[in-house]
């Protein structure tokens, strides 16, 4: 399996500011994803982070609001830009395509964001 | 698009009794199905998957799931529930539409095991 860490684990931010969340995987994974989850609710896919190219965003999510970087096979960042209280949520990083566990997808512990 | 449905928001079971958490799927082609568990303030943990092969899949912590093609179901089961099994459970399907490889999740079922 892969171990995924995220920083920060939680943050409280002011409206209009931006926060960058870092995701580190302890193994090389071919796929990385970012999800959003309201506490106790289901997960919604924000985007697929593509190494060396622009991320692929899901309907309702745009690059200007959620810029994503993925410089290599073990690291990605998600920025939540110009935040509003509606962005308060848990943001989860996920990796998959690990050698020996090709079809499994592993998740980080999440970043709990509160926007005031 | 591929999707899964979890019809129960919450399942209550007494410790020692068998438990079932329901999931039905809607996919075109062969489904890649998964179960995850989420404990409070923690990320998702992988329990088991069905890709192909035996319809009964065994996973972590004594859980198993039965793939039923005719009923398009993939219910999670455990013969004897523990209080420590109380958590939020998600069924998921790998979505290959539009070139995606990500998982699409059900709405989740909260399992409460009473001592």
How would you characterize this protein structure?
The complex is a heterodimer of chains A (116) and B (115). With 116 residues, chain A is mainly β. In chain A, 0% of the residues lie in helices and 55% in strands. In chain A, strands 2, 4, 5, 6, 9, 10 and 11 form a 7-stranded mixed sheet that branches. A 4-stranded antiparallel sheet of chain A has the order 1-3-8-7, with no helix packed on it. In chain A, β5 (43-49) and β6 form a beta hairpin. Chain A is globular, with a radius of gyration of 13 Å. The mean pLDDT of chain A is 93. Chain B has 115 residues and is an all-beta fold. Helix content of chain B is 0%, strand content 50%. Chain B has no helices and 12 strands. In chain B, strands 2, 5, 6, 10, 11 and 12 form a 6-stranded mixed sheet that branches. A 4-stranded antiparallel sheet of chain B has the order 3-9-8-7, with no helix packed on it. In chain B, β10 (87-94) and β11 (103-105) form a beta hairpin. Chain B is globular. The A-B interface holds A 1, 4, 31, 33, 40-43, 45, 48, 56, 92, 94, 96-97, 103-110 and B 32, 34, 36, 42-46, 49, 51, 88, 90, 94, 99-108, 110.
Mean pLDDT across every amino acid position of chain A: 93
Strand percentage of chain A: over 45%
Total strands of chain A:
11
Uncertain regions of chain A: pLDDT < 50 for 5+ in a row?
none
Given the C-alpha coordinates, what overall shape of chain A results? globular
End-to-end Cα distance of chain B, whole Å, is 40 Å
Rg from Cα of chain B? 14 Å
Q: How can the largest sheet of chain B be summarized?
A: 6 strands, mixed
* Chain pair sharing the greatest interface: A-B, 23 and 24 residues
**Overall mean pLDDT of chain B:** 92
Query: Distance between the terminal alpha carbons of chain A, to the nearest Å?
Result: 37 Å
Radius of gyration of chain A: 13 Å
Q: Percentage of helical residues of chain B?
A: under 10%
H/E order of the elements of chain A?
EEEEEEEEEEE
Structural class of chain A: mainly beta
Per DSSP E runs of 2 or more residues, the count of β-strands of chain B stands at 12
């Amino acid at each position: 399996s892969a171990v995924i860490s995220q920083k920060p684990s939680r943050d409280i931010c002011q409206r209009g500011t931006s926060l960058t969340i870092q995701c580190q995987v302890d193994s090389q994974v071919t796929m990385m994803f970012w999800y959003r989850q309201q506490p106790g609710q289901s997960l919604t896919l924000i985007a697929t982070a593509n190494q060396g190219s622009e991320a692929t965003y899901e309907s309702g999510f745009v690059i200007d609001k959620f810029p994503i970087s993925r410089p290599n096979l073990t690291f990605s960042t998600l920025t939540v830009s110009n935040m509003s209280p509606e962005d308060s949520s848990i943001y989860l990083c996920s990796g998959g395509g690990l050698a020996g566990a090709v079809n499994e997808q592993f998740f980080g512990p999440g970043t709990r964001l509160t926007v005031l | 698009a591929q999707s899964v449905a979890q019809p129960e928001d919450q399942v209550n079971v007494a410790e020692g009794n068998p438990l079932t958490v329901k999931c039905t799927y809607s996919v075109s082609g062969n489904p890649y199905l998964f179960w995850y568990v989420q404990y409070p303030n923690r990320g998702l943990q992988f329990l088991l998957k069905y890709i192909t092969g035996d319809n009964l899949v065994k996973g972590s912590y004594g859980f198993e799931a039965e793939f039923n093609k005719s009923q398009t179901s993939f219910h999670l089961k455990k013969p004897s529930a523990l209080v420590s099994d109380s958590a939020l459970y998600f069924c998921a399907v790998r979505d290959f539409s539009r070139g995606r490889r990500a998982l699409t999740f059900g709405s989740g079922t909260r399992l409460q095991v009473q001592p």
